[in-house]
Specification:
Elements (H helix, E strand, L loop, with lengths): L19 H11 L10 H21 L6 E4 L2 H19 L5 E5 L4 H11 L4 E5 L9 H10 L4 E5 L13 H9 L5 E4 L11 H4 L3 E5 L10 E5 L25 H16 L1 H22 L4 E2 L13 E2 L9
Helix pairs in contact: 1-8, 2-8, 3-4, 5-6
């Protein structure tokens, strides 16, 4: 028998290996008992872990601690942003029935949009160019049709398939003229490119632990304090009364450690990844000249290489 070859894992766009520091931070609290909502000493100890983690994430992401709303991951954060903002806006003004987004969003955004469209929302998916970039002219045209009817604009920070970075600042500038809140799914972007919540001008931003070397099952929606959100889940009123449920202190500790390290080491890691990515692309093109590289001419995430093989059908493993 021959010894099996070691597996090489390359699909970090799907999930990342946990960083040792995140594992250490998480496991340090797994054996400790205490509900962060309890008032006794054990509860206060658990709450201290959560709040210190919240502060670490806020510092790394350029936001205030009170703007970090913990969730079970990116999907819940996207749902809270899309549904929560839309419901809050339509409750305040019944004429705000339109939601603008793009055709290349992750299903964590597209599926909630489809669900809302079946319940009265008017969802408009904007086109992108050949490199996967949002068409800003089309966006401006759709806003100008009737700005007062738009409840929300949701545009991902970076595409999970091609790796194309979207013009977030330009999107915010267009939306701000008409007081339209902007949500961005930054799950792929955090730790891979510069992401600063306050500087970006967005009103809500989605992030998750397992894309930055943290654990599964934990993420956050960064949401400006003044942004009105209608809760999806009702219960104990945790997380600013918009995300009820017992808070997972160990997972949040691991999440915070991963975010802190991935942001701190981003520049060095991005440079190394870009070199590896470019070398891979060169080698593939040298062997298979008819391969087509997606996203040429656009700013891309450093670890993404999207290659199309014209005579091969795509498969899902």
């Amino acid at each position: 028998m021959t010894e099996a070859s070691p597996r090489v894992y390359l699909d970090h766009a799907a999930t990342t290996p946990m960083l040792p520091e995140a594992v250490e931070a998480m496991t340090a609290h797994l054996g400790r008992v205490g509900n962060p909502s309890s008032l006794h000493a054990s509860g206060r100890d658990a709450r201290r872990v959560v709040e210190e983690s919240r502060e670490r994430i806020a510092h790394a992401m350029g936001c205030r601690p009170g703007e970090v709303v913990f969730t079970s991951g990116g999907t819940e954060a996207d749902n809270l942003a899309v549904k929560g903002v839309h419901w809050a806006r339509t409750t305040a003004d019944a004429d705000r029935t339109r939601i603008l987004s793009t055709s290349i969003e992750h299903h964590a955004v597209l599926d909630p949009l489809h669900w809302l469209s079946e319940r009265g929302a008017s969802v408009e998916l904007l086109p992108v160019d050949d490199a996967g970039r949002l068409d800003l002219v089309a966006l401006e045209d759709r806003i100008e049709v009737d700005p007062a009817s738009v409840s929300l604009l949701s545009v991902m920070w970076a595409n999970n398939e091609v790796g194309t970075l979207q013009p977030v600042e330009a999107v915010v500038a267009l939306a701000r003229r008409h007081g339209i809140p902007v949500h961005t799914d930054a799950v792929q972007a955090v730790g891979a490119t510069a992401v600063d919540f306050a500087a970006s001008g967005v009103d809500a931003l989605t992030m998750t632990g397992h894309k930055v070397g943290g654990p599964f099952g934990v993420g956050a929606l960064l949401a400006r304090r003044e942004l009105q959100l209608t809760p999806l889940v009702h219960g104990g009123g945790q997380e600013r009364d918009v995300r009820s449920g017992t808070i997972d202190a160990p997972a949040i500790a691991g999440f915070a450690a991963a975010v802190e390290i991935s942001v701190k080491e981003r520049e060095h890691r991005a440079s190394h990844l870009a070199e590896l990515r470019d070398d891979l692309v060169r080698r593939v093109l040298a062997e298979v000249p008819d391969v087509q590289l997606s996203g040429e001419g656009a700013s891309l995430l450093p670890g993404h290489a999207h290659l199309r093989f014209p005579v091969v059908k795509g498969i899902r493993c």
